[in-house]
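Lecture 7, part B: from sequences to assemblies.

Below are the input chains for today's worked example.
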Amino acid sequence: EAQVTQNPRYLITVTGKKLTVTCSQNMNHEYMSWYRQDPGLGLRQIYYSMNVEVTDKGDVPEGYKVSRKEKRNFPLILESPSPNQTSLYFCASSIASGYNEQFFGPGTRLTVL
Amino acid sequence: AQKVTQAQTEISVVEKEDVTLDCVYETRDTTYYLFWYKQPPSGELVFLIRRNSFDEQNEISGRYSWNFQKSTSSFNFTITASQVVDSAVYFCALTAGRDAGNMLTFGGGTRLMVKP
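Predicted structure of the full complex, as structure tokens:
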């Protein structure tokens, strides 16, 4: 089944404790992206990647890091999480770019205490 | 800079009513793409439609239709004869310009509640 998977689905952590949210797609897609969803703000793009080793900032990259060492994986790293990073996070992929239909993962609900 | 505004934060209708969700966008670029995504209560986002700036034809897909008007910078979404299963949050999104195809800007979303 073609899909985007994210792990963990739920995470409660404390300020300053490094964490990684994994994202993997099995559709051989070139483009991958991370978003955060907050009430009233819709989805805001954090980082995106056009291909292996090619990543760039979205609208809200502060406090986040990403890497794209393999085509299928695009982990989101929070080196020192803070309470304002409490949010619902989505990973997405598309065949080539943001022009194309994006397939979204199930979301990761992160709470930073 | 680009911006998407969905002024209706919540809409409540009774089943079988028609409902229109508004989307107004801002961009200085002449080449851009607009999208609608649906987020049902389960949480995952589902693609509904994509439209590019050179194609102003309206589109109909079953009970769904989209009205793209460049003159008013709007890309509105109408559900005809709404059903309870249409209850969801709907997002309009835009990608434009130099980063077209890379960066995607979403509106704040419209929560649609369809009551039986």
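Note for the exam: Chain A touches chain B through 28 residues (CB under 8 Å). Keep this in mind when comparing with the next example.
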